Amino acid sequence: MCLSLSLAWAAPVSRYAAPEAPDVGAPTLEILPETLPVAIVGVHYNQGLRAIGGVPPHWVFVPGTLPPGFVFHHQTVVGIPTVPGIYTFTAIAIDSSGLTGERAYTLEVVDLQPQTITFPVQAVAQRPFFPGGTFAVDPLATGGASGNPVTYTAGPSNVCTISGITVTMLYPGACAITASQAGSGVYAPAAPVSQTVVLVLEAIAVPVLSQAALAVLAALLAGLGLWWRRVH
């Protein structure tokens, strides 16, 4: 009688579980923009926030406190900032599946930078008045850093007016020419600067009659008087 013996080999069982493959298709939710533009004290600010990814529709909200002067309305940071500084807050997004995402924001609030106008005394500070006469502003004003054009006004309106840099004389008196410059997103409006040009009504020269001319005039007047008495 023959006995047969068979041996079976079994691979050893590992005590360590294999790592799970990452879920590369997992949805994400991101809030844009990545950064916020600088805000300026006293200037209206309006910056929308939006979410991308996930399952639309999305909602974005800010649970914390915004800088002074701001509110979060209809997914928009909006308001007129009042206090300069650097502020932080977090925006949170949620989609229709319940997926959430968030982004931390830093918002810098700055004051408007000042700018000044240089407007020298006019080269001719006193001019003879002629009804409807004109003259040019000279020298012109130099503007500040905003790059906006310098504009001019003149008055009072019964004495003078201005178009561009040309002043029109209307009546004798002091004509005040004022230079102004608007602000920009960074610079405040410049303080207006005025210069005055006096419009002088020149005296009209009265002719002086000689003795002979006076004698002729006297005789003429006497003759006119005699004629008047005769006809009346």
What does this structure look like?
The chain has one helix at 211-231, and strands at 29-32, 39-40, 45-48, 50-53, 58-61, 70-73, 76-79, 85-95, 100-110, 126-128, 134-136, 150-155, 160-163, 166-169, 173-181, 193-200. The protein is mainly beta. Among the domains are: 29-110, Immunoglobulin-like (Sandwich), CATH 2.60.40.10; 126-200, Immunoglobulin-like, CATH 2.60.40. The strands form 5 sheets. A 4-stranded mixed sheet has the order 2-9-8-5, with no helix packed on it. It has a 4-stranded mixed sheet with strand order 10-16-15-12, with no helix packed on it. The longest helix has 21 residues, at 211-231. The relative contact order is 0.13. Mean pLDDT is 87; it is low at 1-14.
SSE blueprint and pairings:
Layout: E1 29-32, E2 39-40, E3 45-48, E4 50-53, E5 58-61, E6 70-73, E7 76-79, E8 85-95, E9 100-110, E10 126-128, E11 134-136, E12 150-155, E13 160-163, E14 166-169, E15 173-181, E16 193-200, H1 211-231
Parallel strand pairs: 2-9, 10-16
Antiparallel strand pairs: 1-4, 3-7, 5-8, 6-7, 8-9, 11-14, 12-15, 13-14, 15-16
Organism: Dokdonella koreensis DS-123
Protein name: PE-PGRS family protein
Domain IPTL-CTERM protein sorting: 205-230
Can you give me a brief rundown of this structure?
This protein is mostly beta strands and 232 residues long.
